[in-house]
Design brief:
The structure is a single chain. Helix 4 packs across helix 6 and helix 21 packs parallel to helix 23. The chain contains 24 helices and seven strands. The longest helix has about 30 residues. The strands form two sheets. It has a four-stranded mixed β-sheet with strand order 1-2-3-4. Strands 5-6-7 form a three-stranded mixed β-sheet. It is about 60% helix and about 5% strand. The protein is elongated. The protein is mainly α and about 475 residues long. The termini are far apart.
C-alpha cells in the first residue's frame, strides 16, 4: 500500500471535548502533540504506549473506546506525569467515573496534577464514601485542602464517615440514602424516590424508618413498582431485616451480604437509627482487599496498596524484605536441630539424603492446612469454638495423607539405601504429615482467639516451624528403628 492509499484520519475527534482544568498550558500541551495518519494505532496498544508516542488523536480515540474501569487500570500502570496528561483529556463526567475506579493512592497521584478549580470540582462530585477512603490515605495537607473546598453538605457527610474507625462499616457506607416512613402509600413512596433519588447512591433498597429514624425494615424498589399505587408501605415492608452496626467490621458485614445474597445492607448506629447503606460495589472492594491482604501475609510479604506494574523494584523489595528476614532467623532452628543430631548422621549418613523430601512434604502439608483454615475463618465456615474439632479433623487428614506418601517414600528409600532406612522414612512421613496438618489448622484459630490476624500465621511461618520439628521427628524415629 502506498502512502496515498492510507485512509484520512481526523486529527481531533469532535465527539470529545477537553475539560476546563484551569491549566492554561493544556492547550499548548495538546497542540504540541503530533497528529496525523499514523495517530490511530491498533486497538491492542496500551494507553501508556500511545501516550509515550505523543499521539493525541490516538489517545483520544483510545479513551473514547474503553470503559472507565479499563482506563483506570491503565492510568494506575503509568507514572504521575503520563497519568495526569491522559486524565486531563477526559471530559468532566467521564473523568469522575474513571477517578472513582482508581485506588486512593492512584487518586492522589492524579490530584497532584490538577489545578485548584478542577481539583475542587472533581472531589465535590465524588460519592462521600469514596471521598472518605481517599482522604484517609492522603497526607494531612491534602485532606485539609479537600475538606476546605467542599460544599457544606458534602463536608458534613465526609466528616461523618471519617469519624468512624478505619475498617468499620461506617467508614465504607454511603450516607446518601432514601428512607421511607412506614405509613406512606406506594404512590407517595415512588414520588419520594423520584424527588430524592437523584442525590442517593442507590435506590434499589429502601429502608423503612419510624419518626425517630430507627430502622423498621426494608422494601425493594421492585416491590414498589409492581404494587398497586394504593397499597401501603407497611404491607410490603420486610420486617427484621439483616443489618450491621456502623462500628462493626466492614469485612464481616461484606461477608454477611455475600452469605445473604444482598445488594445493599442497612447500617445503623448504637440506637438502631439508620445512618447509611453498605452497597454491593463497596462490599466487593472490602472482600477483595481482605482477600488480597490474606494472600500477601500467607505468602510471607507485607500487604500494600497500589498497582503492581506501577511499583518500583525497590518498593516491592521493601515490602518483602522484612518477612524474609524473619523467616531466615526462624530457619536457624533447622540448623540447630541438625547440629544436635550430628552424631546420628555420622552413624547413618544415608539419612541426610531424605531430609529435603521429608521437610518438603511436612511443610507442604502444613501450608495446605493453614491456607484452608484461614479461608474457612474468613468466610465464617469455622469459628474459634471449633478449635478441637479442627484439631481432630486435620490430624486425621494429615495421617491419611502421610500414609499415602509413606508407601511411595518407603519404596524409594528401600531402592536407594535399604529396607531399614525405607521404614524410617515411611514412619516419619506419617507422623510428620499428621503433625504438620494439625499445626497448620490450629495456629490460625489460636491467632484468632488471641485477636491476632490469622493470616499473619502464614504458610511460610508454619512451614518453617514444621521444618525444625520435622527433623526432630525424623532423627528420633531413626534412633528407635536403627538403634543408634
Amino acid at each position: 500500500m502506498t502512502q496515498t492509499d492510507l485512509p484520512v484520519v481526523p486529527t481531533l475527534p469532535t465527539v470529545l471535548a477537553l475539560p476546563d482544568t484551569g491549566n492554561s498550558t493544556l492547550s499548548d500541551e495538546r497542540d504540541s502533540l503530533p497528529t496525523g495518519r499514523d495517530s490511530l494505532r491498533a486497538q491492542g496498544d496500551s494507553l501508556r504506549d500511545i501516550v509515550d508516542c505523543h499521539h493525541l488523536a490516538a489517545t483520544l480515540e483510545w479513551l473514547d473506546n474503553h470503559p472507565p474501569h479499563v482506563i483506570a487500570d491503565e492510568l494506575a500502570r503509568m507514572d504521575a506525569v503520563e497519568a495526569g496528561m491522559a486524565f486531563r483529556l477526559l471530559d468532566k463526567d467521564r473523568a469522575l467515573d474513571v477517578f472513582e475506579e482508581l485506588e486512593p493512592v492512584d487518586q492522589q497521584q492524579i490530584l497532584t496534577g490538577l489545578r485548584d478549580q478542577s481539583f475542587r470540582d472533581l472531589v465535590e462530585e465524588m460519592d462521600p464514601d469514596d471521598r472518605a477512603r481517599m482522604l484517609r490515605e492522603a497526607p494531612a495537607k491534602v485532606a485539609k485542602k479537600v475538606l476546605a473546598g467542599l460544599s457544606q453538605e458534602e463536608r458534613r457527610m465526609t466528616a461523618l464517615l471519617l469519624g468512624y474507625p478505619e475498617g468499620s462499616v461506617g467508614f465504607y457506607m454511603t450516607p446518601e440514602v432514601v428512607a421511607l416512613p412506614r405509613n406512606l402509600p406506594v404512590s407517595a413512596a415512588l414520588q419520594t424516590v423520584r424527588t430524592k433519588g437523584a442525590n442517593a447512591e442507590t435506590v434499589y433498597t429502601l429502608p423503612v424508618v419510624d419518626a425517630g429514624r430507627r430502622l423498621i425494615g426494608i422494601v425493594e424498589l421492585r416491590e414498589l413498582v409492581l404494587s398497586s399505587p394504593d397499597s401501603m408501605i407497611a404491607d410490603l415492608v420486610v420486617s427484621e431485616p439483616v443489618f450491621a452496626r456502623a462500628t462493626d467490621s466492614a469485612e464481616k458485614a461484606a461477608r454477611l451480604m455475600q452469605g445473604a445474597n444482598l445488594i445493599n445492607l442497612p447500617v445503623v448506629d448504637s440506637e438502631n437509627r439508620l445512618v447509611g447503606l453498605l452497597t454491593i460495589d463497596d462490599a466487593i472492594e472490602v472482600i477483595e482487599a481482605a482477600d488480597s491482604e490474606d494472600v500477601a501475609r500467607q505468602a510471607g510479604t507485607t500487604p500494600w496498596a497500589g498497582h503492581y506494574m506501577a511499583a518500583g523494584v525497590f518498593q516491592l523489595a521493601r515490602y518483602r524484605a522484612l518477612w524474609l528476614m524473619l523467616l531466615l532467623v526462624a530457619a536457624t532452628l533447622t540448623v540447630t536441630v541438625t547440629d544436635m543430631f550430628e552424631g546420628t548422621l555420622e552413624q547413618a549418613a544415608h539419612l541426610a539424603l531424605f531430609i529435603p523430601l521429608l521437610i518438603g512434604a511436612g511443610g507442604n502439608a502444613g501450608a495446605q492446612a493453614a491456607t484452608t483454615c484461614v479461608r474457612a475463618l474468613a468466610v465464617g465456615e469455622v469459628r474459634v469454638s471449633d478449635l478441637f474439632k479442627v484439631i481432630w479433623r486435620e490430624c486425621r487428614v494429615g495421617l491419611l495423607l502421610g500414609s499415602m506418601l509413606a508407601v511411595v517414600g518407603m519404596v524409594i528409600a528401600a531402592l536407594f539405601v535399604g529396607a531399614k532406612i525405607g521404614l524410617v522414612v515411611g514412619i516419619t512421613l506419617i507422623v510428620i504429615c499428621g503433625w504438620a496438618a494439625t499445626i497448620g489448622g490450629t495456629m490460625p484459630l489460636l491467632a484468632k482467639k488471641l485477636r491476632i490476624d490469622p493470616a499473619v500465621i502464614s504458610a511460610p511461618m508454619v512451614t518453617t516451624l514444621v521444618d525444625a520439628t520435622g527433623l526432630v521427628i525424623y532423627f528420633m524415629t531413626a534412633k528407635l528403628v536403627l538403634g543408634i
